[in-house]
C-alpha cells in the first residue's frame, strides 16, 4: 500500500476493544496482520530460558494456545496444557514414570514425545483408552539458551528453526545477555514500537542509554528490503537541535562514524584490522531492521540487539530482548562485564521499560499516521505479503477467505 498507507484508514473507535476480539477498524488494508491479534502462526517463537525447564512441568501461553513445557532425559517437550479427560492443566501434574507426564486429577499418563495416553493409574492395565486418546504436542527446539516452540498454521511440519533465526546467529560463534519478561499489551504494538522511528527521539529522550548511544533529532528515512528483512535507512540525519522538551541534542559520538552503507564485521569495532576471520561479515544497509514474525534487529557497531515480540494472546506478549557479541574465548568476559554492569540496567531495564509502558497503555485508538510512520506501514506491508505466501504454501485459508480460519489465531 506504500505511501497511501500513511493516511488514516477509518474513523475508528475511542474505547478499548473487548479482550480477545481480533483486529482494529483501521487496519483493513492489512487483513492478515489485522487478524493476527494472537500472533502469526507458522513460526518458531522463543518462550523461556532453557535453564527454567526441568522435570517439573510449567505452563505457558503462546499465540493463544495453552502449553506445558517439561524436560525429560535432556529433551524438552511441549504438550497442550489440558488433560483430555476433564481439562485439568497438565502443568499441575508430575512425572510418575520416565518419559511421561501424569495428570494430577485421576492419573491419566501421557507419553511425552507422542502425547498418547499410555497408562491410566486409576483404571489399571486393562484400561481401554490407552493408545486411543492423545493430547496435542508441539515441535520444540533449543537455541540461544532458550526453548522455542513452533505453532503450526494447520498440521504442517515445521520448517527447520535455523531458517527462521536471524542468519548471523546460525553461522557465527557469540556470547549473549538478555531478558525475558511477560508484558501487557498486544504484540503488534510492541513490534511496531520497536521499529517506530520517531519514538526513539522523543519517548526515550529521558533514557540514560541516550548518554551513550545518541539519536538524531530528526532524519529522512527510506525503507530498504533485503532478503526477509526491511531496513530503515537514514538518508538525511540532523544532529543539532534545540527544542523545548527535548533539549539540546549534540551527541554525535558513534553515529557520525557510520558511513551511509555499512558492512559490519560482527563482534568487533567495524575496523578491518580487528576482524575475526571466523566471523562472517554482514552488510546491513541500516541500523534497524525487522522481519517476521516480529523480530527487531538493532546493529550497533560492536554488538547486535534483538527483540522478539512473542504473542501470548490478544492482550499480552512476552518481551525477549537479547544482546549478542560475536566473540568467543576470553574476550567474552569483557562483554559479560559490560552487559551485567551497564547494558542490562540501562537498556534492558530503563530504556526498554519505557517501551513496555507505551505498549501497556495503548489500546486500539484510531490512527492518523505521519511521515516517520513509513516504518510502521512498511512492516505491515511486509507481514501482509509474507503471511499471504505462508498460507498459500501450507494451503490454508486467510482472513479474506474465511473469517474463523486458523490464521485468526484460534484459542487453545
Ligand atoms: Fe486429568 Fe482426570 S482430569 S485425569
Return the average pLDDT rounded to an integer.
81
| Major sheet description | 7 strands, antiparallel
Radius of gyration from the CA trace?
A: 23 Å
Which term fits the overall shape? Answer: globular
Number of strands: 21
Please trace the helix and strand order, writing H or E for each element.
HEEEEEEEEEEHEHHEEEEEEEEEEHH
Strand order of the largest sheet: 11-21-20-19-18-13-12
Query: Oligomerization state of this entry?
Result: single chain
Class by SSE composition: alpha+beta
Binned strand content: 25-35%
What ligand molecules are bound, each kind once? Answer: FE2/S2 (inorganic) cluster
| Total count of helical runs of at least 4 residues | 6
Describe the structure.
The protein is an alpha+beta fold and 412 residues long. Helix content is 18%, strand content 29%. It contains 6 helices and 21 strands. The chain has helices at 31-35, 167-171, 187-195, 199-202, 331-361, 374-394, and strands at residues 43-49, 58-62, 65-72, 75-80, 100-102, 108-111, 117-120, 137-138, 140-143, 146-151, 175-184, 218-226, 229-238, 241-243, 247-249, 262-265, 281-284, 288-291, 295-299, 304-313, 316-325. The strands form 6 sheets. The chain has a 7-stranded antiparallel β-sheet with strand order 11-21-20-19-18-13-12. β3 and β4 (75-80) form a beta hairpin. α3 packs across α5 (331-361). The longest helix has 31 residues, at 331-361.
Give me some keywords for this one.
7-stranded antiparallel β-sheet, alpha+beta, 4-stranded antiparallel β-sheet, 18% helix, binds FE2/S2 (inorganic) cluster, 412 residues, globular, 21 strands, disordered N terminus, disordered C terminus
